[in-house]
Amino acid sequence: MAGHSKWANIQHRKGRQDAKRGKIWTRVIREIIVAARDGGGDASANPRLRMAIDKAKAANMPADTIKRNVDKATGNLDGVNYEEIRYEGYGIGGVAVIVDTMTDNRVRTVAEVRHAFSKAGGNLGTDGSVAFQFKHCGQFVFAPGTSEDAVMEAALEAGAEDVITGEDGAVEVICEPGDFEAVQKALEAAGLTAELAEVTMRPENTIALEGEDAERMQKLLDVLEDLDDVQEIYHNAEI
Q1: DSSP letters of the chain?
Q2: pTM of the predicted model, to two decimals?
Q3: For domain 17-73, is the CATH number 1.10.10.200?
C-alpha cells in the first residue's frame, strides 16, 4: 500500500494555520453554532457537534464560551443565523480549489470569494466543477517513523478503508466520514497519536507547483484564508 507522501504539504499547511491562529475561535464558534442548530445541542448524540467542541478545546476555548454558543444555536439565546455555502474554482496551473464558508450574507460572501480568486489569478467556477476531484473522507496522518503495522492493525480492524505509506515514511489512514470517531478511538487506544485527524475533502490527484507558480498559489490561499466567512479550504496543489 505505497503512496505519495502528504507530509510536507500537511506541515506547510499547519504552519500557515498557526500563523493565523487568531481566526480559529471565530471559525470554531460558527461550526459549533451550525452543528448544534442542525443536530441539536446534545454532543453525545451529535457527532458533528462533538468534533466542533473538540476543535474548540484544542484551541483553548473556555467551556462557558462553548456552552453559550451551543445555547445560542438551539434557541436559548438570540444569535446570528449562519448558512453553509460551498464555492469551487481553479487556482494557478489548473489547481482545483474548494472553499467552504459560513455566512449571514451570501451576497457579500460570493463577492468576496470571487474577488479573491480573480485578484490572485484564479477563477471561480460553478457548483460541481472541481468537487469530483476530491473524496469526502476521514483522514489521519502519522509522522514518518510511525509503525505502519501498528497503524494498519488498529485502523483496519476499526473499519478504515486504507492505510497508505508515503515516500518519506508518513502513514496515512483513510476512512468513511461516518467511521471517523470509531477509527480515531481505536488508534488512540493503541497508543497512536495522529499529527492530523479530520474529516476532509482529500484530493484524488495532486498538482506540483514550484517557484513563481507556487508563490502565486500560496497568495491565493492566503487571500481566501483572510476572508471572515471562510471556514475551510481544500485544494490539490503540492506547494
Answers
A1: -B----HHHHHHHHHHHHHTGGGHHHHHHHHHHHHHHHH-S-GGG-HHHHHHHHHHHHTT--HHHHHHHHHHHTTSS-----EEEEEEEE-GGG-EEEEEEEES-HHHHHHHHHHHHHHTT-EE--TTSSGGGEEEEEEEEE-TTS-HHHHHHHHHHTT-SEEEE-TTS-EEEEE-GGGHHHHHHHHHHTT---SEEEEEEEESS-EE--HHHHHHHHHHHHHHHTSTTEEEEEE-EE-
A2: 0.81
A3: yes
